[in-house]
Amino acid sequence: MALTLALLGLVVTLAGLVVYFSTLAKHQVPARPVGLIGALLIGIALPAAALWMEVTVGIAVPAVLSIITGVVFLWILSLRKTPLGDIRVKVGDTVLPFNSQTDANQPFDETAFTGKRTLLKFHRGAWCLYCSAELKQFEEMAPELQQFKINVVALSGDTVENCKMHKVRDNLTHTLLSDPNLKVVKQYGLEHQKALGGNSKYSFTLFGIPFPMMMKFKSMSIPTTLLIDETGVIRWIDQSADYRLRANEQMIMAAVKQVFGDK
Fold first, then answer.
1. Domains located in the chain, CATH noted
2. Which of 67-76, 178-187, 208-217 has the lowest mean pLDDT?
3. Is residue 175 pLDDT above 70, yes or no?
4. Packing angle of the helix pair 2-25, 129-140 (nearest 10 deg)
5. What angle in degrees, to the nearest 10, is found between the helix axes of 34-53 and 57-78?
6. For the segment 70-129, what is each residue's pLDDT rounded down to a tens digit?
7. What is the mean pLDDT of residues 195-217?
């Protein structure tokens, strides 16, 4: 009975994670991850009961694995809120001057926006599964965005090398910008201090989803999207109060059509 409870708890935990992560590919991450939280709680309770009933190696291994996995993911979910309110630009402002490097190690500054329509994305890094899914969504939206002559540019704290890796790994055509010291991020007031994050250099991909192998508290970008017109004026801003949640295709295209008309 104890072994059954321990194994059942592990199965429920893993099933909950699989179902939750499958929503990334569909760009349908739930605002309230009730199902995942419920699965993780069950995955903690059943193995705990199993250990209370009997402790053997065969029971302890799946039980402890399920409990640790559940506790870790519940803890990570508890840190999902981002601190908004310090952004230094607003709709109608001209983009701030800045300097960065592209994934091709070429200089990039605010003058690159002149004469072009741009969707500028500040994201957390190649290690972030939610950012990866969002940039893939932009890639899927390329035909629609191209109808409005909109280029996608994405900036993070990744190094140039990690930007190159990200571009190849996810088959992206966007321009990826490197801001390793977060100078641009801080200039725009988009820094999330002491957030739990990974290192893009040390991550692995499972079923198309990146996972960091090591995590620590550090500063990074608050996920933020700016829609910029040909004159360098910011016409739309979207920020994530929960780093898991990003604007979907319908929201983005509604903003594009509102700013630039039907075409």
1. 2-78 (no CATH), 99-260 (3.40.30.10)
2. 208-217
3. yes
4. 40
5. 150
6. 999 999 999 999 999 999 999 999 999 999 999 999 999 999 999 999 999 999 999 999
7. 92
Q: For the chain, how many residues are written?
A: 263
SS (H, E, C) the chain: CHHHHHHHHHHHHHHHHHHHHHHHHCCCCCCCCHHHHHHHHHHHHHHHHHHHHCCCHHHHHHHHHHHHHHHHHHHHHHCCECCCCCCCCCCCCECCCCEEEECCCCEEEHHHHCCCEEEEEECCCCCCHHHHHHHHHHHHCHHHHHHCCEEEEEEECCCHHHHHHHHHHCCCCCEEEECCCCHHHHHCCCEEEEEEEECCCCEEEECCEEEECCEEEEEEECCEEEEECCCCEEEEEEECCECCCCCCHHHHHHHHHHHHCCC
The torsion of the CA quartet 215, 164, 245, 93, rounded to 10 degrees, works out to 120
Q: pTM (2 decimals)? A: 0.94
Look at residue 263 in the predicted model and tell me its pLDDT: 57
Q: What is the pLDDT of residue 224?
A: 98
Structure tokens at 231: 């004159």
Q: What is the pLDDT of residues 136-168, one digit of tens each?
A: 999 999 999 999 999 999 999 999 999 999 999
Is residue 131 within 8 A of residue 224, CB to CB? The reply is no
